[in-house]
Amino acid sequence: MVKDSIRIGGQNIPVIGVNTLVVGSGAAGLNAAISLVKEGVEDVLILTEGMNMGTSRNTGSDKQTYYKLTTCGDTPDSVRKMAETLFAGQSMDGDIALAEAASSLRGFYHLVDIGVPFPANGSGEYVGYKTDHDPNQRGTSAGPLTSRYMTEALEREARRLNIPVADGYQAVELLAEGEGENRRVRGLLALNRQATGTGERFSVFAAENVVYAVGGEAGMYKTSVYPGSQTGGMGVAFRAGARGKNLTESQYGIASVKFRWNLSGTYQQVLPRYISTDAKGEDEREFLEGWFSSPEALLNAIFLKGYQWPFDPRKVMNEGSSLIDLLVYRETVLLGRRVFLDFRRNPSSAERNGRFDPDRLSEEARTYLANSDGLQNTPIERLLAMNPAAIDLYRSHGIDLTGEALEIAVCAQHNNGGLAGNRWWESNVKHLFPVGEVNGSHGVYRPGGSALNAGQVGSLRAAQYIAHCYRELPMSPAEIGEHFGGLISEVIAYGMNACQAAGAKLNLAEEREALQRRMSRAGANIRSMEEIRAALLQNREQQERFKTPAVDEKDLPSLYRMRDLLVSQQVYLEAIQDYIAAGGPSRGSCLILDEKGQKPHEALPEAFRFSLEDAGFGGRIQEMTYHPAGSTASWRPVRPIPDEDVWFERVWRDWRENRIYQG
Question: What is the mean pLDDT of residues 132-148?
Fold first, then answer.
């Protein structure tokens, strides 16, 4: 790492030169840095807004899942079978599916070796269970805080390896040059969030490679289970020319809102009571009653929400589990009421003579609860017996599930789409490697827990490629000035002019609120062309306000963040608009309103009509390229699963000669 400075716009800007800059300090970013060092690349720097921020460290569920190749019992499994499961999720590239399957055990056992407490039996088998979209019991868990344990263990390992960290820096502009296939990244401009005074706020990080691990674009949504500290950074990448992939595909599901947490797994399987109230918390009623044909159908839908947690339009018909999400949406959005899970009492449908009656359950639910020693009289007693950590988690955040109901909503939870990359996780902008949730490696229906595996595998593979192909030195300060002086000056001037502008200051909190409400209304799990068009018009009007803004100097980080979120929102909404215009029906975790379609339930309004997916879309991928006047969309077939050579002597030769990194 080399430190110097460059004079731009009358001020000295620090320049830090490094072979590889890792942006982000979550599980994927930390693993990228560790893997680089272990692959022999020691000139590595982690840049982060805060080591304790981000999704990996601050989210989870009842037992957060890690998805990998089966490592227990007698269930047959193979790399190819796992790849086929991932590929079957639609709109997923087969070469990425194969890579995620092939390196899943390497990533998993690395985490075990550095201290993540995944459970094993007495013979050393790392046991598993069946997660959503998973035929093979490939899921495993270290409990509600799996990704936090991962991040903490990875941070300890990074510190043991003495990997330097630039903490408190916000990426505001990628420095990229060239056109088309020759476009590549050369570093980035960052805002020092800890500095005071406008003259010392910016630094340039010159880098031969940038591993971009900024997470999903969480800051776009109002109704969200992403932690408040997670915002994303895709707008920066879009402006640099990085393509988006499958941006229409995000996941939404039932989560608590006071403390943001997914309410999947045991939280549903113990059969809590769903209630709604008016805005003041009065007029309490069990609103699911009457929407199901029998007590067994209602209780089965609640139970299935445990491992059918993401909203899925295929599961709203015939009293499926996702009908619950629609009814929660109806109560909260259309009727303006508040919805709660109450673990203190059973649903009325689950009781006979004032006691819990297991005979009212489906055979699947009754067997599961019996095998889990979970047939106690109340939901909280069942939760205590089956997963006491799930209760302790809320208690640690000031919420006592034994004494109060838990307010919920249908929330944005995970971005299955993201930035496009090849099988080494390299973007179309060369030397830029999006890893973790920011990479759109997933298809439409990913198995639960596969995101954690993808983050570990993708960051490892990016590190491998860099170590074997991209070891050159970064640009010198003089070269940075020559190639990017104008861009750096322009980006800095945008913020400085805003701080010095006369007139009314933008209320950035209100502007952010408006942006988030727009996305949760138009671009979440219930979508229509009418709402998308209206949201895009509002996005453009808001972007106009941010062309020559006036803000306080303390709001500089928020100003740049809003600029990026507005770009991201534009691209996402334009992707959804293109998808609907192309005839794309409901799929994944979104329901697209269609007056010619079917109603999820006869008692729901006509506006809820929708059509299910046409199989042709599952074999194609939408990619988006940002332009200020309007992004361009393109469609391509998925890349098939490669028929890789597995003859040992030939592979050994190609591995020795570094041929595996070609193509």
Answer: 90
Please write the tens of the pLDDT for every residue from 71-104.
999 989 999 999 999 999 999 999 999 999 999 9
27-38 and 146-160 helices cross at what angle (nearest 10)? 30
- Residue 395's contacts (CB-CB under 8 Å, 6 or more residues apart) are 401
CA 12 to chain centre: 37
Q: Which two tokens stand for residue 130?
A: 């069946």
- Going by C-beta distance under 8 Å and a sequence separation of 6 or more, which residues neighbour residue 392? none
The burial class, CB within 10 Å (0-12 / 13-18 / 19+), for 619 is exposed
Confidence grade of residue 199 (pLDDT, cut at 50, 70, 90): low
Question: What torsion do the CA atoms of 434, 436, 440, 445 make, to the nearest 10 degrees?
Answer: 170
DSSP string, 29-51: HHHHHHHHHHTT---EEEEES-T
Question: Are 575 and 249 contacting, i.e. CB atoms less than 8 angstroms apart?
Answer: no
Q: Are 373 and 384 in contact (CB under 8 A)?
A: no
622: left (phi over 0), alpha (psi -120 to 50) or beta: beta
Q: At what angle do helices 556-581 and 477-500 cross, to 10 degrees?
A: 100
Q: What is the CA radius of gyration of the chain?
A: 25
The tokens for 193 are: 């969030």
Query: What are the pLDDT digits (tens) for 266-314?
Result: 999 999 999 999 999 999 999 999 899 999 999 999 999 998 999 999 9
Statement: the pTM of the whole predicted model exceeds 0.85? yes
CA distance 71 to 75: 9
**Positive/negative CA dihedral, 150, 152, 157, 159:** positive
DSSP class of residue 210 equals E
Kindly state the percentage of the chain with pLDDT values over 70. 99
Q: Which helix (H) or strand (E) holds 209?
A: strand 202-212
**In the prediction, which pLDDT does 197 show?**
61
CATH of domain 2-249+416-478: 3.50.50.60
Q: Give the pLDDT confidence score for residue 422 in this predicted structure.
A: 97
Per-residue CA distances from 310 to 208, 220, 264, 326, 412 (Å)? 39, 19, 9, 12, 10
What is residue 391's three-state secondary structure?
A: helix
Beta strand 202-212 with 355-356 is unpaired
252-412: CATH number: 3.90.700
Task: Tell me what pLDDT residue 282 has.
Answer: 95
Q: What sign has the CA pseudo-torsion 313, 326, 354, 371? A: positive
Which DSSP state fits 38? Answer: H
Name residue, tokens 């209780």.
299
Question: Which of the two residues, 1 and 175, has the higher pLDDT score?
Answer: 175
In the block, tokens 């995101």 appear at: 451
Determine the residue type at 318.
N
CA atoms 497, 501, 506, 507: torsion sign: positive
pLDDT at 196 over 70: no
Q: Which of 52, 51, 48, 54 minimizes the C-alpha distance to 190? A: 48
Closest to 450 (Cα-Cα) out of 110, 108, 129, 86: 86
- What distance lies between CA 31 and its chain's CA centroid? 17
* Per-residue model confidence (pLDDT) at position 133: 84
Q: Which residue ranges make up each domain of the chain?
A: 2-249+416-478, 252-412
